[in-house]
Structure formats: C-alpha cells, structure tokens
Amino acid sequence: MHIHILGICGTFMGGLALLARELGMTVSGSDANVYPPMSDQLAAAGINVSEGYEPKYLQPEPDLVVMGNAMTRGNPAVEYVLNKGLPYVSGPQWLSQHVLQGRWVLAVSGTHGKTTTSSLLAWILEHAGMSPGFLIGGVPDNFGETARLGKTPFFVIEADEYDTAFFDKRSKFVHYLARTLVINNLEFDHADIFDDLAAIQKQFHHLIRTVPSEGLIISPQEKAIEQVLAMGCWTPRQSLGNESDWQATLLKNDGSEFEVSFAGKTGTVNWSMLGQHNVNNALAAIAAAHHVGVTVAHACEALSAFAGVKRRLELRGEVDNIRVYDDFAHHPTAIATTIAGLRAKIGNKKLVAVLEPRSNTMKMGVHQDALAQSLIQADRVLLLQDSDLKWSLKQVTDELGDHVSVFDSIDTIVKTLQTEAQQGDEIVVMSNGGFGGIHQRILDALEQR
Length: 449
Known about the structure:
- Its EC number is 6.3.2.45.
- One of its GO terms (molecular function) is UDP-N-acetylmuramate-L-alanyl-gamma-D-glutamyl-meso-2,6-diaminoheptanedioate ligase activity.
- InterPro entries: Mpl (IPR005757), Mur-like_cat_sf (IPR036565), Mur_ligase_C (IPR004101), Mur_ligase_C_dom_sf (IPR036615), Mur_ligase_cen (IPR013221), Mur_ligase_N (IPR000713), MurCDEF_pg_biosynth (IPR050061).
- By secondary structure, the protein is of the alpha/beta class.
- The protein contains 15 helices and 23 strands.
- The chain is 34% helix and 24% strand.
- It has a seven-stranded mixed β-sheet, sandwiched between helices. It has a six-stranded mixed β-sheet with strand order 18-19-23-20-21-22, sandwiched between helices.
C-alpha cells in the first residue's frame, strides 16, 4: 500500500510516517518546510519527502492520502485530492485504524507536560521489558526516535487537543481509543481554534466518553478537570498530588530527588530532571505504568535512568562557564515552571531568560497580562518583538523594569548576550519554534569574544 502524507515534517505526521514504514507500507510525503530533526529521521527510514505542495507529487496516484491538520482548503495538493476524488483520511483516523486497533493505548493529555510525561511513561515500560509502541511529539533521548510500533499490545501516545483536520474539527485525541488516560492539567490555550476554556473542556469530555469502564483516568484534582469529570465519567479515576491517591514528596527542593507513595507502596526517584512540574509529570507516568502492571519501585528505578527529552530544558552547550539551554515553553505557566525549576537548581546564579512569544495564542495577545509574572524569577529578560505579534512587549518592561529588554531582531539579542554574559550565567532560551537557530549563535558568539 502506498500512502502520501501531506504535512509530513510535523512531529505527529512524521511519527505517523515512521509507523507506516515499519508496517511495510510505501510512504512518501510533502511539506512546505523540510527541516531537521524530522527530515533526518524520515530520510534514514527511506521515506521520500518533497518540498512544497505541488500536485505532481501525488502522481502516480497513491492508494491513500493522509492529511495533516495544517492542511487547508486552497492548498494546491488538497484541491487536487478533492478534484480527483482521491481517497483521503486524517492522520489521527489513519492511526486509529492501522495502529491502535486492538492495542492497550496509554494516552497522555493536558495543556502542559504531554511530551515529557509520554516519554517518561514509554521509558518506564521499556525499562520493565514491555517493549511498548509510542508516538510522541518530541525525541526522548532514551529512544532517539519519535515513534515505533513496539512488540507488545502497549502503546503510549501524546494525546493532543488540537483539531484533527480541515474536515474534522474534533480534537485529535478522540480517535485514540485510550484505555489508560492521563490528564496532566487543563488551562486555556490554542486561542486560534478554541474560543474559551469551556470549548476545550467540551473536547476533553468527548475524550472521557471514549475511555472504557474497565480503563483508568489519572489526573490531579484541579478545578477545570473536576468540572469536566462532573459532566459525566464512566471510568475509575485515580488522583495525583497532595492528599490524593498518588503523592510525591520532594527530598530536594529542585525536584531532582523525591519519594512517591501510593496505597502504602513507596519508591524514590533520583534523576537529572528539574522542577515541580517534572515531578508532577513523573507521578502521572508512574501511575499510568502501574495500571499496566509496573510496580512503584520499578518505575522509580526506571526514572533514575531517564535521559531527558530534546528541547525540554536541554543543555545545548557551555562556553566560559556560561550554560545555554533550549526549552519548548511558550505558555505563561510553562515559562514560569521552567524558570522556577532552573532557579531551584542554580540558586543565586544569574538566570537569563530569552523568549520568543511565537505560539498563535501568544501572538493574539491572549496571555499578554500573564507574561510578565511568568518571567519574574529571571534576573535578566530578553524578548523578541516579532512583526507577527499583535501587541507590544513594552507592557512587560513596564511591569518588570529595566532588567527586561525588547529586541526586533535575533542578531541584536545575540550581540547583547555576547557583550553582557559573564562566567557562571545560566541562559534559558524559550520558544515553540526554531528561534532562528539562536542557541548555537549565542554559543558561537561567546566563543568569538
């Protein structure tokens, strides 16, 4: 069977391509931007990728076209598929039909922490000898790949609430047939497709409706989640957090060591990850793994050998005792927790935050009132005022003071850091995009001075 994937270089669609190739299918694809790391993974798998959406890439005609959710009416490839009557399907629906049917799906959902929690969960199962399949929106260092079929019924998936396709406006995760469902947290995000938090909660309730009564829902006792569960829940639930079923007690303030307890069973995690948010992610992953038979002690042992995830407070390099990190944070809550985790580790060292407010929600100004407070623990803040940003970042400087600067180019940010950075500084760069390769440019500039 030959499938052609439109939008193949996105993390989800690229992972889907790898799974299809592993199933023995002939896979090709096209995308507007073909770039690493996904382009490298696809090339290594022998998958032909074309740049752009020319109809000629659909000739000879494939057996099936799989549409990414970035595809819209008016796209030349989409119009060709519709006009020619070629069979097509969304990515989540293809995944449901060809990979997830008959599997024990462990789905990780929520506004924050999905990639990390999915990676933790997959690694716990792997460490337990359960050889799970997975599809994750990032690259776990323990695996070095975003997706694989696995050798057992267990399949871990990052369950995204973004819409499925231009012809299916349900959230992706309703297709995933979850038996074990984690809901990490729930806040307003994706303002480009959701009007308000209630609209997101409605989609999460659609997800809850799909979980069998013999399954399990795992979540903290947060107000927004409790409201969703109150709409109707037919599945047992275990809670996370203080005075809950699953609890984590910090043994070190930076979150690098903590104790886990559940129903009288305990275990200790001593690992390289930082921050309360990652402790929360770990607790959810341990609970989900326990549902499929992994003991608390074994799960904690696995996490002590967890190597991290690309772009989740990833150390990109060190020059003259100045460290540069890359982090995917782009929502005020994620920005605040990333900075808090690093602050807990480094103590009084100078913490420099470099932020590109790039997400659609941030560009629309939905989070503008919360952004300043999310940066408050940083000693120095450098912000990129992109032309697509529909509001002025001067609001942040007015709120936080002279240690915050706004720039209109990446070059100027790099030159400023080249001049200002001192030995012992910790620089964390935050964006949900490539940020023009700024991480390496900063390191190169520090080397040159």
